[in-house]
Amino acid sequence: MLAITVTPAPWFTWWAFCLYAIAAVGVLTLGYQWRLRQLRQRQQQLEGLVEERTAQLSKQSVLLDENNQLLRSTLEEKNRIFADITHEFKTPLTLILNPVKDLLASSDGNQANSLTLVQRNALRLNHLVNQLIGFNDMTQPDEEHSVAHLQQVISSVASDFDKMAAARGMKIEWHCPEVTVGLSVPALELIMGNLLSNAVKYGEAKSTIRLTAETASHEQCTVTVFSQGVPIPASADLFERFYRLPEHRTGVAGSGLGLALVKQTLENYQGSVCFAARDNGNAFTVTLPVVSPQQTLITEPEPSAKAYDSALALMSADKVLQLDKNEQQAANELVIVEDDPDMSWILANKLSGHFSVNTVDSGQAAIERITEHIPDIVILDFMLPDITGYQVLQAVRGNELTCHIPVLMLTAKHDRDTRLRSKEALVDAFLTKPFDDEELVLTLFNLLQIRQLIGQKANTALTGQQQEPVFDSPSDQQFYNKLNAVLNECAVDADFGLSQLADQLFISERQLQRKCKSVFNLTPNAYIRNYRLQKARQLLEQGERVSLVVEQCGFSSHSYFSQCFKALFNVTPSEFIDRHPRH
Questions:
Q1: Is residue 3 part of a domain?
Q2: How far apart are CA 78 and CA 347, in angstroms?
Q3: 512-548 pLDDT per residue, tens
Q4: How many separate domains does the chain show?
């Protein structure tokens, strides 16, 4: 047999497989090297980006530090300028208060009222200046004198406010253990003075104010000031600057800065303040840091005026100014809606010679007064304790009994938005405080004259041949239509008069009289008589006999009808029939 040996193909030989393995290893090595090179390049790129970004952040950080430093220095400069300017108010205030005090000692009557007004508002401004200064002085804690004996300070503050509390029939009771707190004496006096001042001003008369201090731990103590009165709503922003509770207003003026200053001062000394409404009153609780008596510093602060001295002076000057009612002889009734008692007094005092003046101090009271008495004109403040002047104006304009009354908006707000909103609310005139006396009086008289001209125009239409007057106000038109609808049904009754018409319209006789006088320049009885005569004229034109017209139009006698008809149309009923024969 022939032996045949088949050799493998070259690509299946062992050396071929070795070459395959070497090639594969080479390819993998080259791929690895290429990938590694890419990763290194990417790493270098990322490192470059990181370095660039780090440089940018460093540059921005330096720039931010510079801006912060500039801002800090600017704020410090602003506070310094503000403090300097605020302190400059003290000299002119002193020059005002001292001569006024001397003049008050030798004056009486109306001059004394005016001087009292000047003194109280100068003291009010002085108190406001002191509170503004307090915001600057209490920005940083007094590290040199940051220790106070709590019992001594509370005893001193309570003693200072005893006289003010007694004037309202109130009593201050306090209890405090001997404890040393980490606050300066002026800061602690400011806190306690503000809390006690609010308790005396806004607490219930003839009640007891309780001030209780307790040691909560070795590091903290609490002081609670409780006063009886209407509970304050829990949602009230009591510690916001310039926030005030309108429903707790008394005659004492305030700024809304006291509690905000208390909060800021306590935060500067790692303390806190909170409020809690109780069933029979309100409680303010402050938390103070306690320090050991050994930390008491040897150096003592220089004696100075207490932080609440201006508040005490302002409360001492509180006096209700009385208006001399004998001077009010004017016929036109004016209602002044102003919550500030001093501004209300000075307005009433200036205008009492021209108007019969009545004053109210809240929006709801104003709406009730205006609706009940229908005054000839109203002076309205924008900022009121319960609702805004806009809401009062909307209520006045939305009531057909009062929509015709001219309203002068007198406010300290003089920005464009306030003026535009006043125009939208249909205010008749707008003046800002401080105001000029002559301009105020002229504006009021101009508004009254315009109202009288409108009334005369309606009167001319009603008493002439034109029976349907045109009114600028839809509410006046609605009142006119309602009035005529009632008379159309009831005027046939000869006994139907003022009281019956008021009952049908569900308003008082006074409201009806003042409304008719303002809108038609006629009394209600004159309007009823005019309505009957106009109806009689129509019936006579239709050919009705005089005797039937007298009966159908509600006249009690033929002679009285003839007399009234001639007074209005300058002809007797018989002459009228002759001039208007029926065709």
A1: no
A2: 38
A3: 888 887 777 778 888 888 888 888 888 888 878 888 8
A4: 4
